[in-house]
Amino acid sequence: MKLFFAADLHGSLEATIKVLEVYKSSGCDHLVILGDVLNHGPRNPVPESYAPPQVADLLNEHKASIIAVRGNCDSEVDQMLLEFPMMSDYAWVILPTGQRLFLTHGHLYNTDKRPPLNKGDIIVHGHTHIPVAEWQGEQIIFNPGSITFPRNGHKASYGVLQQNRLQVISFDGEVLCQQELG
């Protein structure tokens, strides 16, 4: 199973086009969207190329392969434009290894406030806009960073899970961080 992770699109058409181009060429089985899909939110500036209806149209073309969770900037109004469910606060994915991925945005559950997890499980979240791929205690923390508003001097990035390795990759192909699952 090969998964592609994107977080914090915030309605940017330019960022969405870029991430979908990379997703389509990646050979990944699913696009996992970790919230804050259409709305920029009151604490963020309006992104360049802010176009939520067009972002929704582009994402809807991939609805059969999207797994999405709700971010703190997402609402029922956003769901009306999207043809895939995205209002759940979390989702689980079971890997062939038996490890569980806990998918969430990061505003309710995160590195510091974890749900009940087993040793070796992976909490996958966005929200902070900062890439992370590392063991912290008994779990792996994975954050693909942000496509639209990267923070702390990081580059815009996305994540990939393949061959038992989590990677955060910038759009120029640089691996920003990675972690083996084993």
TrEMBL record:
Transmembrane segments: none annotated. Its EC number is 3.1.4.-. Its cofactor is a divalent metal cation. The keyword Hydrolase applies. Keywords: Hydrolase, Metal-binding. Signal peptide: none annotated. Residues 1-162 form the Calcineurin-like phosphoesterase domain. GO terms for molecular function: hydrolase activity. The keyword Repressor does not apply. InterPro entries: Calcineurin-like_PHP_lpxH, Metallo-depent_PP-like, MPP_YfcE, Phosphodiesterase_MJ0936/Vps29. PANTHER family: VACUOLAR SORTING PROTEIN VPS29. Belongs to the metallophosphoesterase superfamily. YfcE family. This is Phosphoesterase.
